[in-house]
Amino acid sequence: MEILDGRVVSQAVKDDLKKQVLLLQQQNKKVPHLAAILIGNNGASETYVASKIKNCAEIGFKSTLVRFEESVSEVELIQAIEKLNNDKDVDGILLQLPLPAQVREEKIINLIDPAKDVDGFHPQNTGRLMQGLPGYIPATPYGIMLLLEYYKIETAGKHAVVIGRSNIVGRPISILLSLNTNPGNCTVTLCHSRTKNLKDICLQADIIVAALGKPGFLTADMVKENAVVIDVGITRVADASKKSGFAIMGDVDFTNVAPRCSFISPVPGGVGLMTIAALLKNTWKAYGKKDTS
Fold first, then answer.
1. What is the sign, positive or negative, of the torsion defined by CA atoms of 189, 194, 196, 200?
2. What is the average per-residue pLDDT within 88-94?
């Protein structure tokens, strides 16, 4: 069993980007600029956004944090996005989800300039993904593909089972794994809460992507020997033994599943770190599409 170490791979991605940014700085050129919008004081969202800003600083990207109270109106949010869309210095826009109830998520996502949509959630980018055209891939699925590529995981002709059908992870990773690319060329089964005989389907899988948000859902009796398991779950679970008062758990029962695997990603230290690395790569791509002289 080998660990798919997000720390190692994400650092490799960041080291490469840092070299590219250093070249820009030496030439006195503009560096990539990521703007993040954060609403309210959700602990997990605060942590995610702070990590993204920290990583931007680490590699030399410029970052801007636009904060709003939980009570923000839809009109205020629309005005903020329009301002960022029109700001030529901003290359990428990150909208931290979820949004408060008074704001229509679909409407707000659709307002983000597709050329700055480094989250890859705009319908134009999801449509391009569906057709195998260049665009911005949602960061978590993109990060998974980078992880598979780094560890040279053989995917062609393999049966991949994706558990979870969200627009953020499940659906896009099922498309990516099925594309005529490397990694890719899998036969993909997309499972969800209504799937019957899920255990039997998982036992046929060479690759399992668990992305449903239920701690410890994938158990050892659902995984065949030498399978590759990618754990996308990241749930805060109360734990009095931790200083923070909670522990981070994935969707996989890691202790019991790991011995059966050829490769497995841990939580934390796996896909979460790759999500940030992929977001940085998307921002770099957005920067490269502009006139940066």
1. positive
2. 97
Whether this prediction's pTM lies above 0.90 is answered by yes
Please write the tens of the pLDDT for every residue from 40-70.
Answer: 987 778 888 999 999 999 999 999 999 999 9
CATH class of 28-114: alpha beta
In the chain, residues under CATH classification 3.40.50.720 are 139-272
Task: Mark whether 52 is an active-site residue.
Answer: yes
Distance CA 133, CA 40 (A): 35
The two three-digit tokens of residue 190, written as one number: 């997309």
Residue pointed to by tokens 């998982």: 202
Dump pLDDT digits (tens) for 108-138. Answer: 999 999 999 999 999 999 999 999 999 999 9
Q: Catalytic residue among 5, 91, 117, 119, which?
A: 119
Quick check: 172 and 129 in contact, CB under 8 A? Answer: yes
Residue 52's closest CA among 85, 9, 108, 10? 10
Q: Specify whether 87 is catalytic.
A: no
| Residue 71 DSSP code | T
- Give the active site residue among 5, 14, 91, 96: 96
52, 116, 158, 281: which one is catalytic? 52
Q: What is the CATH number of domain 139-272?
A: 3.40.50.720
How many Cα atoms are found within 13 Å in the side-chain-facing hemisphere of 193? 4
Output the CA torsion sign for 117, 121, 124, 125.
positive
